[in-house]
Amino acid sequence: MKPFIVMQTDFGKGISTCTMEGVILDIDPELRIFHGNHEIQPFNTYEASFSLFYYVQFWAPGTIFISVCDPGAGTSRRPCVAKLKNGSYVVTPDNGALTHMVRHIGVEAVRLIDESCHRLKSTLKVDIFHGRDLFAVVAAKLASGIINFEGVGVEYPVSEIVLHKQTRVTVDDGLITGMLETADRRFGLICTNIPIEIFEKQGINYGDMLETAIYHRNIVVYSDTIPFARSFGHVNEGDALVMISETQQVQVARNLKNMSVEYGLGTGPDWKITFKKK
Known about the structure:
CATH topology of the largest domain: Rossmann fold
Structural class: alpha+beta
Strand content: 25-35%
CATH architecture of the largest domain: 3-Layer(aba) Sandwich
């Protein structure tokens, strides 16, 4: 069985992703393409990184992921293929999109894509769409067996992979501090980088009330005392709650409301969150 190809982008599922599919299937019509997240916030390479972390671990080893969030297309940023320690591959610009792969999944090796032999020939004058003209080509060649990992291009040190800064989770006299990993725009889910084990070690149980605050560059944008609950259905409509996310991290939301949009929340190290059991 040939490896699956899973695609994510920040430009939506439509004409651009359709051309990528066409390039892949022209190389090998037997390949199977699946669509991951095409709703990454435009230019947000941190969100692209977390999106990969969300689902890479649930696909079979050997799966080839294409991640195209590429605000530096046509510049000196490195187009690459990362071989993960779980046996899968990520084809992506090296612009921070591999942050969670390095820190949570593990990257065994990374290679610079050789554009001289893997660039789509029919669009050589185009410098703004490597998703179609380079990444789709390389993913298809890998999945079909036309090339192996060594055939991608020269290897460079994993230590040179571009990483986003992340705020370390801390606990100080019962105050738990972390950062916002995601600020979902559909349902308003706010996922933190705080693993649920931190709550367990602090003796926080369902039903406990938590003093919760969210900061943007040390300015408070949200503050309230809210319950730690199993799911939305355990609080009234409009009420906020703390719960366990799909990635088994601490998450904040409001029942049937969109907290992300309401408070204009973002992600990354500029966004801090704290919890303390009342």
